Amino acid sequence: MKAKNERIEEFLKGLNIENLYVMDYVNIDDIDFSDAYQSIYEMIDDNGGFNVEIIYYRNAIDYLSKNDPSLHESLQLAADFGFNLTDLSSEVLASLLASENCRNDFSALQTDIEEFFNELCR
């Protein structure tokens, strides 16, 4: 039987989230098993893992055309963060949207993460 830390590492490596490799931001020894999902989320957030930067005009336009062709969502995010129109560029909009999508993609795995750690602790 694999050691607990090896099983956790294997599980976390298997989380498929665009623009996020969870193991770059999580220290397995620091996971609070009583609330593993929140503990992991906070480690990623504290270490900037959800801050996705899309650079270069072409990459930004490609990301936006695939994920927000109307720009409605990315413009709403910019407004929520207090950006002025003069501060916006395709890179800023794409980065805001990619960061939000990264958070949402991780959050969508909450049940899977909780079930894995509940099973592990039995």
Q: How many strand units? A: 0
Low-confidence stretches: none
Number of helices: 6
- The fraction of residues in strands falls at under 5%
Rg measurement, Å: 17 Å
The sequence of SSEs as H and E is: HHHHHH
**Structural shape:** elongated
Number of domains: 1
N- and C-termini, Cα separation: 15 Å
* Largest sheet report: none
Mean pLDDT: 96
Output the structural class.
Answer: mainly alpha
**Helix content estimate:** 55-70%
- Could you state the oligomeric state of the chains shown? single chain
What does this structure look like?
This protein has 122 residues and is an all-alpha fold. The chain has one domain (4-120). The chain has helices spanning 4-13, 36-46, 57-67, 72-80, 90-107, 110-120. The chain is elongated. The model has no long low-confidence stretch (mean pLDDT 96).
Descriptive keywords:
mainly alpha; elongated
Give a short summary of the structure.
It is built from six helices and no strands.
Draw up the topology in text.
Elements (H helix, E strand, L loop, with lengths): L3 H10 L22 H11 L10 H11 L4 H9 L9 H18 L2 H11 L2
